[in-house]
């Protein structure tokens, strides 16, 4: 890790009332001495000082600002941190950043470097760091709540407890390898096998219960699928309350998949309009139909839409029934008898023209999303890399057997513990760290 003192704006660059610039490193207090009229020797941690801000080279006044000092190790990074709260004009920010870059031993921070230093100084593990990244990126209340839960260390505690159990077994087995003349205690054998079997059960339950946890971060995929002129584009526009896609009476108007992002009762949803399902000689439309089928296959939920006045829902039989909400559009054209017929078949009646049934459809979609994401759980898998490492751990635990050579059994335990350590960062990989912290914004 670099010993240089780093700095960066922690707020978005541009016009704003206040901007925050963060400085972290062993020379952070030099900013107070060189760029303000506050005494660096008498400054108190966690106190705000209103002062004049000067250029470090020319002594020209740059702004009137607040300066705060956070003394190591009681700071975000675990290093000395100074924060400058200045006015947020582009001119002020530019001049302050240029002045900081002129100080010896100072440089602009790389993306995620503040959080990386916090990780190296054991202020957080990787799951907590990724929870912080999720909180910064959160666009819905469900994402916000889950990110806060992960930041609080719930996954760190879970995976850390599992790893500690494995390290205990590993220590016992290593001791036996070092002293082979001693007979391995039968009680130890039984206890080790019991712990491993218990962990296998817990990890499997965790993997199954968190099957759709990644969707809470990435978005829940909902595809609108159906025959031509069913009103798919009209439904899309009605749900997002804007003209997101072209609507026309001409069959085959929609030829490609169009994605729109929604906040549905706090859950992130990616809603996709697709081409109408039908046979066509038009190569472009054929490609659109192929894409529609692929979207249906990849979707977490399908709105199977058809024109109730034509009762042309037969194409919906090609779709995965477990994922489909059957929706009959143009209910405003139906008789009471026809309505009864579709309701008896389990179809939800809507009209994109009159907005009938749209709130009921939204409620039904939200209920299905809640059941799949299980956001009420405080310990869900939010990243693919967690799932991969857990599966790697599980494979090694299932290979563990004290009836085979003790060295091989010991290696199974070591590899299982190592897989868990990769999730939290106790087993470091520069490639993983660069990938994780490289996704952070500059200044975090």
Report the sheet-strand fraction: 15-25%
Q: Rg to the nearest angstrom? A: 29 Å
Low-confidence stretches: none
Spatially, the strands of the biggest sheet line up as 3-4-5-2-1-6
Structure characterization notes:
This protein has 444 residues and is an alpha/beta fold. The chain has three domains: 5-119, Gyrase A, domain 2, CATH 3.30.1360; 127-210 and 381-424, Four Helix Bundle (Hemerythrin (Met), subunit A) (Up-down Bundle), CATH 1.20.120.430; 216-373, 3-Layer(aba) Sandwich (Rossmann fold). The protein is built from 15 helices and twelve strands. It has helices at residues 30-35, 90-101, 113-120, 126-137, 141-151, 154-178, 186-209, 213-218, 232-240, 283-298, 336-344, 358-373, 384-399, 406-424, 430-437; strands at residues 5-9, 16-24, 48-54, 61-70, 81-88, 106-108, 220-225, 258-264, 267-273, 301-307, 324-329, 348-349. The radius of gyration is 29 Å and the shape is flat. The model has no long low-confidence stretch (mean pLDDT 86).
Write the layout of secondary structure elements.
Elements: E1 5-9, E2 16-24, H1 30-35, E3 48-54, E4 61-70, E5 81-88, H2 90-101, E6 106-108, H3 113-120, H4 126-137, H5 141-151, H6 154-178, H7 186-209, H8 213-218, E7 220-225, H9 232-240, E8 258-264, E9 267-273, H10 283-298, E10 301-307, E11 324-329, H11 336-344, E12 348-349, H12 358-373, H13 384-399, H14 406-424, H15 430-437
Parallel strand pairs: 1-6, 7-9, 7-10, 10-11, 11-12
Antiparallel strand pairs: 1-2, 2-5, 3-4, 4-5, 8-9
Helix pairs in contact: 4-5, 6-7, 6-14, 7-13, 13-14
